[in-house]
């Protein structure tokens, strides 16, 4: 075996530890985001998810997580990704602008009670930001999972809840995002199963 | 009450009292996030300790295969299908590759010099997936696709959390018959995937949480990709421009 290849294994794993632990310091933001999401689901909202490239697969993972939970007995919650319909995406991109692929779908598929969740490894994806801005104008709850320094998306006033994976490595950011959305799913159910905590009078 | 509900109650005891209020729930869920972060850090370390050397060996085998013109075929069900698509996207168009938009990429992070490699996600072609499922059965979807497109020396890359998905078992058997290099990711104790004898490089994430398994598997395939890129670089210029094999 090439010892140089073997030697890089510890560094590859070590690079993940800090960003993964950083999620613990985000616990308050995670809890608030979950409560807001659960409140929307309680009112009949749906979770609409989007992202580019590898984050497009996260969008699909998040929607299957909510629609078909891996833990038996948890109820299905309505969710869909804007990355799955390749006819629509290529149609919009070819005729108008790739920056509009998610915003267009949100304008025509979203309702004010819904939740818009965008995933962006550096926080600078133009079409994700535009979709979050569109969602905000329509009255949706807006949430972003971003990496790096959070980028334009973290600085945008259109986003209600921003969770940042503090790393410039898009692969490591994705791994933090996977843990984050698994936790979002679990904790939404914790709130959702508690009669009382989702009533309008306790919603901040 | 199911065992899942029992464990939920032990994790969030406040929620099962009549007087649950928002602050108490928030406190419980905050602690849950901290616990999950610690859990995944520990699990990844276990995986690195157990399988680090085998990951390097697998990456070397994949790099050698790519340098000979191999294509990678990734497959999985449900959440693992999104991982399969992530694997294909990662090898074919690594995020941060210079062909992308440089303005959105910080300088010098891993991946900025990565080489695009040929990879397909078998779950992405919904026409083929639904045709096979409708006409024959869902258990043949990946195996039939590999039978149609896989060549000796190509790479079959399957992801499962249970290790028991019937269509993955069939796919690995088909891939093995065709002389493909087989890479499998599983969870728990590896399930049937660990008993097959048809998987050259099997990585089992020893956890009973589907979520933690998927999170650690994401790290495993990211590490395999990065090690494969390293190994390709070390193979030198001859490996940089493989001649595509001719059709038979």
Q: What is the makeup of the main sheet of chain A?
A: 5 strands, parallel
Count of alpha/pi helices of chain B: 7
- Largest two-chain interface: A-B, 66 and 68 residues
Which strand order does the major sheet of chain A show?
Answer: 2-1-3-4-5
Structural class of chain A: alpha/beta
Low-confidence stretches of chain A: none
**CATH topology descriptor of chain A:** Rossmann fold
Helix content of chain A: 55-70%
Beta strand % of chain B: 5-15%
Tell me the overall shape of chain A: globular
Structural class, from secondary structure content of chain B? alpha/beta
Main sheet: strand order of chain B = 2-1-3-4-5
Any idea how many domains of chain A?
A: 1
User: Assembly type of the shown chains?
Assistant: heterodimer
In CATH, the architecture of chain A is 3-Layer(aba) Sandwich
Q: What is the first-to-last residue Cα distance of chain B?
A: 59 Å
The count of DSSP E runs of length 2 or more, i.e. the number of strands of chain A, is 5
Folded structure, characterized:
The complex is a heterodimer of chains A (204) and B (248). Chain A is of the alpha/beta class and 204 residues long. Chain A has one domain (36-193): Rossmann fold (3-Layer(aba) Sandwich), CATH 3.40.50.10490. Chain A is 55% helix and 13% strand. Chain A contains 8 helices and 5 strands, in the order ααβαβααβαβαβα. Chain A has helices spanning 3-25, 27-42, 54-67, 86-95, 101-109, 126-138, 151-155, 170-192, and strands at residues 47-51, 79-81, 115-120, 141-147, 161-165. Chain A has a 5-stranded parallel sheet, sandwiched between helices. In chain A, β3 (115-120), α6 (126-138) and β4 form a beta-alpha-beta unit. In chain A, α1 runs parallel beside α8 (170-192) and α2 (27-42) packs across α8. The N and C termini of chain A lie far apart (58 Å). The model of chain A has no long low-confidence stretch (mean pLDDT 94). The radius of gyration of chain B is 20 Å and the shape is globular. Helix content of chain B is 51%, strand content 10%. Chain B has a single domain (21-236), classed as Rossmann fold (3-Layer(aba) Sandwich). In chain B, α3 (79-92) links the parallel β1 and β2 (119-121). Chain B has 248 residues and is an alpha/beta fold. Chain B has 7 helices and 5 strands. Chain B has helices at 3-11, 22-67, 79-92, 126-135, 141-149, 166-177, 210-235, and strands at 72-76, 119-121, 155-159, 181-187, 201-205. The N and C termini of chain B lie far apart (59 Å). At the A-B interface, α1, α2, α3 and α8 of A face α1, α2, α3 and α7 of B.
């Amino acid at each position: 075996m090439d010892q140089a290849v073997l030697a890089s294994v510890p560094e590859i794993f070590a690079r993940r530890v800090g960003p993964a632990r950083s999620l613990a310091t985000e616990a308050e933001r995670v809890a608030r985001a979950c409560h807001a999401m659960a409140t929307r689901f309680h009112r009949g909202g749906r979770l609409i998810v989007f992202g580019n490239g590898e984050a497009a697969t996260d969008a699909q993972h998040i929607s299957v997580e909510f629609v078909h939970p891996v833990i038996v007995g948890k109820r299905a919650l309505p969710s869909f990704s804007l990355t799955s319909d390749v006819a629509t995406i290529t149609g919009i991109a070819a005729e108008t602008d790739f920056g509009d692929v998610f915003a267009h779908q949100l304008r025509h598929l979203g309702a004010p009670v819904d939740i818009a969740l965008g995933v962006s490894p550096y926080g600078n994806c133009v079409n994700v930001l535009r979709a979050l801005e569109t969602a905000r104008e329509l009255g949706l709850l807006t949430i972003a999972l971003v990496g790096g320094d959070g980028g334009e998306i973290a600085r945008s006033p259109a986003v209600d809840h921003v969770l940042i994976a503090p790393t410039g490595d898009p692969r490591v950011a994705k791994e933090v995002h996977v843990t984050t959305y698994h936790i979002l799913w679990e904790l939404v159910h914790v709130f959702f199963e508690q009669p009382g905590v989702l009533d309008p009078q306790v919603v901040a | 009450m199911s065992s899942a509900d029992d464990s939920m109650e032990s994790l969030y005891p406040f929620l099962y009292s009549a007087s649950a209020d928002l602050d108490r729930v928030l406190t419980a869920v905050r602690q849950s996030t901290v616990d999950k972060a610690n859990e995944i850090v520990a699990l990844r370390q276990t995986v690195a300790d157990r399988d680090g050397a085998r990951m390097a060996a697998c990456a070397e085998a994949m790099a050698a295969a790519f340098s000979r013109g191999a294509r990678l075929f990734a497959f999985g069900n449900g959440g693992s299908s999104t991982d399969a698509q992530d694997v294909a996207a990662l090898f074919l168009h690594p995020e941060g590759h210079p062909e992308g938009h440089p303005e959105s990429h910080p300088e010098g992070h891993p991946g900025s010099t990565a080489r695009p490699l040929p990879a397909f996600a078998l779950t992405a072609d919904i026409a083929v997936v639904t045709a096979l499922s409708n006409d024959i059965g869902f258990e043949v979807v990946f195996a039939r696709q590999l039978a149609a497109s896989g060549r000796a020396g190509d790479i079959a890359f399957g992801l499962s959390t249970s290790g028991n998905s019937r269509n993955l078992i069939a796919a690995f058997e088909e891939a093995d018959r065709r002389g493909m290099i087989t890479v499998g990711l599983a969870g728990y104790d590896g399930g049937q995937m660990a008993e097959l004898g048809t998987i050259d490089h099997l990585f089992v994430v020893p956890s009973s949480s589907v979520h933690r398994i998927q999170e650690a598997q994401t790290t495993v395939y990211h590490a395999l990709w990065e090690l494969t890129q390293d190994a390709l670089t070390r193979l030198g210029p001859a490996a940089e421009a493989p001649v595509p094999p001719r059709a038979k």
